[in-house]
Specification:
The protein is α+β, with helices and mostly antiparallel strands and 554 residues long. The chain has 13 helices and 26 strands. It has a domain of 270 residues: FAD/NAD(P)-binding domain (3-Layer(bba) Sandwich), CATH 3.50.50.
Amino acid sequence: MKAILTTVFCITILIFGCKTSQEPDISFEADVIIYGGTSAAIIAAVEIAQSDKSVIVVSPDKHLGGLTAGGLGWTDTGKKETIGGLSREFYHRIWKHYDSEDSWVWQQKSEYGNRGQGTMAIDGDQRTMWIFEPHAAEQVFEDFITENNIQILRDEWLDREDGVIKKDGKIVSLKTLSGKILKGKVFIDATYEGDLMANSGVSYHVGRESSATYNEKYNGIQTGVLHHQHWFWEDISPYKIPGDPSSGLLPRISAEPPGEYGAGDNKIQAYCFRMCMTNHDENRIPFPKPENYDAGQYELLLRSLETGRKDWFSKFDPIPNKKTDTNNHGPFSSDNIGMNYDYPEASYERRVEIIKEHRDYQKGLLWFVANDPRVPEDIRTKMATWGLAKDEFTDNENWPHQIYVREARRMIGEYVSTENDVLLKRVVPKSVGMGSYAMDSHNIQRYITPEGFVQNEGDIGVSPPAPYSISYGSLIPKKEDCENLLVPVCVSSSHIAFGSIRMEPVFMILGQSAAIAACMAIDEEIAVQDVEYEKLKTNLLEKGQVLTLSEISK
């Protein structure tokens, strides 16, 4: 995390009786100020620059692209035909990268082939590719910045104490921890956390709403609902001495009751790092053993493996050059369940601690499975052939620079997207893009059942019957909250609907749509809430955005 810059003291020099002082230029101004370095932030910046408006990206991150460039190379596309505009342009550029034989360093292009679970990696008809290495994605984002001559301030963090100045319902400026002041006509919060949104006085929610709040089935506490494979198939004791509560709980199991089915809570779905791994020896670094390694943290995994589970390697999804995008799979895996509840509202310092705890947990997990003699031999010996990819994240000990913030704050804006939108149970007004992926919530808590066994809760996977529209009202605050802010990542959505919206291609779609609306608001000198939708719709379609099912079927 960036340290606060030390105070710049004025040096007084007396020359010919005149006193002068020199201070660094810390004031910046543009039509649009974007806070964030995510995929949505960069796509929004490109759209603004191509619309002949000035833009400055204030990025807390040194590396651009968020999760898209941070290990999530096995893209959760849903229906690819819903992905248009600059989002599709990104995946076209990925295809161009891998169309060159020079990009295939550790394997032949023909060896990789056309892979994907129902979604082909190399889409010959549309010249897009949806599966890629982290460094390839980051280079596309860097190319976007260079080609469009976009000004970007990296490693700059919003001053969350008094860094947002508002006047007459509008943001006037934001200030970073280093003292830089950014003035703009319209602001876009494109972070995963929503810090600018929250510090602008905009209403938001953290955690799960009750199922009754928006008349939903899959929101709130979901005890007894077991989707995917991320739950314990067998009865496993949660106690250090099996069956003996007096011995104490194993690590990473909550002693608190899970709560009433359907009730809301302040818990959020688990985070992890999407790891880029390889079993190609020339490019492999053996998993490092963390300094604070504690094998006892993984006792519950050992008990699960001892029941005979053999699905440990199920989410080692292959990306080019003999690497993986390795994601969570099973009841005890890379998801660090229950260890992130305070992250959305936490100070920067506390977030650093949470991220470190996740990194240490995950590094220890990899070491444990590859080295602990109690792990079943077939799994242990195979795991020992894997390691971190030597040519990825080279300035961060080959570890992803972005933790997977699956959800944090969610705005309560002019329109709240809910599962009724995703499941096509109501007509969505003012579409600015589409989603199609399942409502996917990872586990939220690990608890003790009434029968005295350990179980996970919160994992949901419910697919929409067809692609659905996302409302412009979900990108904008209520007018009384703020008139010149758009939020394309921490959108106005219920927890369970966000489980579908939160996919990286959708964030890029919404980033472009937010940027188009921002430019219209500037041109007409109006609040973002007053942008005329029919004009916005025309502009979105001209830019290649896909807004409704009828356009897909053409």
